[in-house]
Amino acid sequence: MLLSISLSWSSLAIPITPRVRVEQLSNTDLILRCQEGKQPDRVAFTELLRRYQGYVDKILYNLAPDWPDRGDLAQEVWLRVYKKIHSLKDPTRFKSWLGRLVTNLFYDQLRKRKKYSESVSLDSPIIDEDDEYQWDLPSLTPNPEENLSTVEFYEHLQRAIADLPETFRVTIVLREIQGLSYEEIAEITQVSLGTVKSRIARARHRLQSLLKPYLDSR
Questions:
Q1: Can you tell me the distance from the alpha carbon of 25 to that of 95, in angstroms, rounded to the nearest whole number?
Q2: 139-159 tens-digit pLDDT
Q3: Domain span holding position 32
Q4: Global confidence as pTM
Q5: What is the H or E stretch that residue 201 is in?
């Protein structure tokens, strides 16, 4: 004799975990959400853009302060992120991956504009007893607790970087702000390792000269 048993889904009382809102996700989980489907989830990707847009804008400003179309470049950055985010194997390294993508796009545009010049007088050798200047740049974003004099210094520093010849401004930004290695900079800029070291040394020395009147006045 067969026993007929009727079950309903409600009678099973299986707990259903609600999908977490994107605003509550960590950066890593947000990126994983964007990588789930064949194309990034639009809501998750919009949140990703919101969180990192300032970072992209900061890099582009430091690389190209006098370019009027930085907004167009930023838009192109996010189009590339949308297309390439599935190729990112380690979501915890998204920020450095994004910085590299921004830098590569900038250099693509720089080459198209033919503004890159190899014959710059600042490339002449300049070294100290340790073969290079050891003056490091602080982050260009002062902390909220820093006093007004420090904020003023950051403003002078940003202007000094903007006043560097483009070749040297780009190199110092890649090194001191994005934290790229000499080897990575050489690969991106397609110059020798020695040229990269020389340009960084020259840029640091030039920044010291530009900032000296301000520092002396303090």
A1: 16
A2: 555 555 455 456 677 777 778
A3: 21-113
A4: 0.65
A5: helix 193-217
